[in-house]
Design goal:
- The chain has about 160 residues and is of the alpha+beta class.
- It folds into two domains: about 45 residues; about 100 residues, no CATH class.
- Helix content is about 60%, strand content about 10%.
- It is built from five helices and three strands.
- Strands 1-3-2 form a three-stranded antiparallel beta sheet, with helices on one face.
- Helix 1 packs across helix 2, helix 3 packs antiparallel against helix 5 and helix 4 packs across helix 5.
- It is globular, with a radius of gyration of 18 Å.
- The two termini are about 30 Å apart.
- This is Na+/H+ antiporter subunit E.
- Keywords: Cell membrane, Membrane, Transmembrane, Transmembrane helix.
- InterPro entries: Cation_antiport_E (IPR002758).
């Protein structure tokens, strides 16, 4: 279990390093020690729990996140370019089917990174979001993101 978690984290942090540095070969002199240090710190702060994460779930989540970031960004840009801003901002509460607290935190962070939504907090398995326009299909987006996160953590939700 620990070896699997270490391999997973090395691969994840290596991928992040590669993306951040644009794959520049010279960056690995600093990158490899940084990745080893990050893995060490992550084991101290978040020890493996025995429940593995799904790599295929993670890949599906990343594609979902990238596509939705672009789509949401275009929606917000279209709203901002309208001559008369007709938005209905508000705070919405969404009861979550996710039970894993780490999964809930990932979901909240993900939704904060998508344009038009900002996570305000989690309380009693309920996510509170500030939205730029309540008429947008926020519920559908939250449920879609929740299912993607559930796949990463191996949770079965309806």
């Amino acid at each position: 279990m620990i070896i699997h978690a270490a391999i997973y984290r090395v691969a994840l942090y290596g991928l992040i390093w590669w993306v951040l540095t644009g794959g520049h070969e010279g960056s690995w002199k600093i990158g490899i020690p940084s990745i080893v240090f990050a893995v060490f710190v992550s084991f101290r702060l978040l020890p493996p729990t025995g429940r593995g994460k799904s790599f295929t779930g993670l890949l599906g989540f990343l594609s979902f996140f990238i596509l939705n970031s672009v789509r949401s960004g275009l929606q917000i840009a279209a709203l901002a370019l309208k001559p008369k801003l007709d938005m209905q901002p508000g705070i919405l509460a969404f009861p979550l089917e996710l039970r894993n607290k780490d999964a809930q935190v990932l979901l909240a962070g993900t939704l904060s990174l998508l344009p038009g939504t900002l996570s305000l907090g989690l309380r009693n398995n309920c996510l509170f979001l500030h939205v730029i326009d309540r008429r947008m299909p926020i519920e559908k987006e939250v449920r879609s993101a929740e299912h993607r996160v559930a796949r990463i953590f191996g949770e079965d939700i309806a």
